[in-house]
Specification:
By secondary structure, the chain is mainly beta. The protein has strands at residues 6-14, 18-19, 24-25, 28-36, 40-44, 65-67, 71-83, 85-91, 117-118, 121-122, 125-126, 128-134, 140-141, 144-152, 173-179, 188-202, 217-223. The chain has a single domain, classed as Sandwich (Immunoglobulin-like), CATH 2.60.40. The strands form 4 sheets. Strands 5, 6, 7, 8, 9, 12, 13, 14, 15, 16 and 17 form an 11-stranded antiparallel β-sheet that branches. The termini are close together.
Length: 224
């Protein structure tokens, strides 16, 4: 699915051959250049982390896990030309993701274990995990409402786009945007919307020092 980021256009124009009684010469003029695909930039509304503040251990009383309130983070993708573009998240704390945080969760907040991202570790314990999704009602591209569609970023051959449950994002899965009711990425120069992040913390018992939540995602821009 990953295509080249540029289109190369080469054109060769042969020079005229002039014949005379005294000499025969030829000249060749080559015209070449590079047409570069429109470059895009991704930015978030908060340059720093999505901070959930200080959580007291008292909040875990009688609970195995603590579901924190969701936090919304706005994003924008600006391109210098209309182009098909997507984003692929990579979990920088993948080894600490507790895939079981969704047990017993139903409705819009339900998710598959593979959708969980890590929050780091304290000692030898995983702090928990978080899930993230696009808020579909917030998605606008070039002034029009769009839907998010997803496909494996390493897919070979023809790519099958789909709508994921609750628009959850998953590591290694590319997310793109298309017109409502379609499963085809559109060409846009200005895409904006909101990403909703929901952490779930495992109960940390017998803490002797503060435990720092340390989740981190890298989003890679993909030119489709």
């Amino acid at each position: 699915m990953k295509l080249g980021h540029r289109i190369v256009c080469s054109l060769c124009i042969a020079g005229a051959v002039v014949r005379s009684s005294s000499a025969e010469t030829a000249a060749e003029l080559t015209v070449a250049g590079t047409i570069r695909a429109g470059a895009c930039q991704l930015s978030f509304s908060e340059p720093g982390p999505a901070h959930f503040g200080v959580i007291s251990t008292m909040a875990f009383k009688g609970r195995k896990r603590l579901h924190l309130e969701s936090k919304d983070v706005a994003f924008r993708i600006l391109c210098d030309a209309r182009i098909r573009v997507g984003v692929t998240p990579r979990d920088n704390q993948r080894g600490s993701a507790d895939r079981s945080i969704g047990e017993g969760v139903e409705g819009e907040d339900s998710h598959e274990p593979a959708d969980v991202f890590g929050l780091g570790r304290h000692g030898n314990r995983n702090l928990g995990g978080f899930v993230a999704r696009f808020v579909e009602s917030s998605l606008i591209a070039d002034g029009r409402r769009v839907e998010v569609i997803s496909a494996p970023s390493e897919a070979e051959g023809s790519v099958r786009w789909e709508r994921r449950n609750a628009r959850q994002i998953r590591g290694g899965v590319t997310n793109a945007w298309g017109a409502q009711g379609t499963l085809t990425p559109g060409t846009y120069s200005n895409i904006s919307g909101v990403m909703r992040i929901r952490p779930v913390l495992n109960k940390q018992e017998n803490l002797t020092q503060d435990a720092s939540i340390d989740g981190s995602l890298t989003f890679e821009l993909e030119y489709l």
